[in-house]
């Protein structure tokens, strides 16, 4: 086992057992739901590209329905739901069913009456242009995003990067990042971001098919077309935002479709410039957690600065009789993830 590949290390199991012993009677400050990689399509079951994992395209909607039912009956109603990207599958495009599939899933989410924060993943871009997504899957303007918020740092609307922040309760902030800011998917061929992405992939991936990972092992495998990176403007914005959060002694949770810690994911799912984001996070004291999807097997790692990196198990590769979602209970001194089905319980103490 390589040193950086420690997602099932002892620390994780110790945290799981500590979580199960925790006192349930204390009222959380607020709660929120999390779900990843629903990848709904009204098509028969299939497999991932390498035929190693079964995908339940139609049933993913039933799993979302079960998650919604659970969230609706929580004693402390979730303040919001984080949908970590890949809400519908790329296959919808082939059947000209993208809009219908998206409407189906959004209608299902609507039944809860709970605000949903949507992250954009690779499958969003297989179905829609960025311009389409700005109209149809844009949660930047939900009720509490930016409202009555002392931190007004709005992300510069540079070529429509989809990054924003919100504060659901005093002293807590959530940041949604755009992991496909620099990418070959979702960017126009004449854009700066597309050309930057092409240069990166040409430098690191010698394959004709750029979806094919460049090496059998190691972090270089992340240089594939179905991943992407964070642009300089977005990184600078994040840095400035976190400085303000530091000053306000906030606890910050950051979310993105792509994981950024090598020990929280298979390297083939890692963001290209994950190290740039990590350096920024390490220069601020406010960040407590980073949540992502994309790696359907899930993962977890607490890094050297105490940040919890959670990669959520994907709905699409979850058997019909199982579940894959979580509810996070937020307290002054910790967060507690109550997992369902493949998503394990975890206690996430702030260090
Ligand atoms: N070796 C490969 C792998 C994939 N593709 C094509 O790339 C597109 C995205 O692949 P897909 O597996 O659907 O992406 P997900 O985001 O669902 O999953 C990411 C990780 O694999 C999950 O662990 C799709 O069009 C594939 O056909 C490829 O050409 N060559």
TrEMBL record:
Database matches in InterPro entries: Calcineurin-like_PHP, Metallo-depent_PP-like, MPP_ADPRM
What family, per the record?
Answer: Belongs to the ADPRibase-Mn family.
Signal peptide: which range, if any? none
- Its EC number is 3.6.1.13, 3.6.1.16, 3.6.1.53
Name of this protein: Manganese-dependent ADP-ribose/CDP-alcohol diphosphatase
Which ranges carry the Calcineurin-like phosphoesterase domain? 31-297
Molecular function (GO) terms for this protein are: 2',3'-cyclic-nucleotide 2'-phosphodiesterase activity; ADP-ribose diphosphatase activity; CDP-glycerol diphosphatase activity; manganese ion binding
- Enzyme class per UniProt: hydrolase
């Amino acid at each position: 086992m390589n040193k950086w590949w420690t997602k099932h290390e002892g620390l994780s199991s110790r945290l799981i057992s500590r979580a199960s012993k925790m006192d349930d009677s204390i009222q959380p400050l607020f709660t929120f739901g999390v779900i990843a990689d629903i990848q709904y399509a009204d098509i028969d079951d299939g497999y991932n590209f390498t035929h190693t994992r079964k995908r339940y395209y139609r049933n993913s909607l039933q799993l979302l329905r079960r998650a919604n039912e659970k969230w609706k009956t929580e004693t402390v109603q979730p303040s919001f739901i984080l949908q970590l990207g890949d809400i519908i599958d790329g296959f919808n495009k082939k059947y000209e069913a993208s809009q219908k599939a998206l409407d189906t899933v959004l209608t299902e989410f609507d039944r809860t009456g709970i605000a949903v924060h949507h992250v954009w993943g690779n499958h969003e871009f297989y179905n829609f242009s960025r311009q389409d997504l700005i109209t149809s899957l844009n949660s930047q303007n939900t009720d509490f995003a930016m409202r009555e918020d002392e931190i007004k740092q709005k992300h510069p609307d540079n070529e429509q990067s989809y990054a924003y922040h919100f504060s659901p309760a005093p002293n807590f902030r959530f940041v949604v990042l755009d992991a496909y800011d620099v990418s070959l998917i979702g960017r126009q061929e004449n854009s700066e971001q597309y050309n930057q992405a092409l240069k990166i992939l040409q430098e690191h991936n010698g394959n004709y098919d750029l979806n094919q990972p460049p090496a059998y092992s190691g972090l270089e495998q992340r240089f594939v077309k179905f991943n992407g990176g964070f642009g300089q403007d977005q990184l600078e914005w994040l840095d400035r935002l976190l400085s303000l959060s530091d000053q306000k002694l906030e606890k910050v949770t950051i979310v993105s479709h792509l994981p950024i810690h090598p020990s929280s994911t298979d390297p083939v799912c890692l963001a290209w410039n994950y190290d740039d984001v990590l350096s920024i996070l390490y220069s601020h004291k406010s960040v407590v957690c980073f949540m992502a999807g994309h790696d359907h097997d899930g993962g977890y790692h607490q890094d050297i600065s105490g940040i919890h990196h959670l990669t959520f198990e994907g709905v699409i590769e979850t058997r019909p009789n199982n579940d894959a979602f979580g509810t996070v209970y937020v307290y002054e001194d910790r967060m507690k993830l109550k997992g369902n089905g493949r998503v394990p319980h975890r206690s996430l103490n702030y260090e």
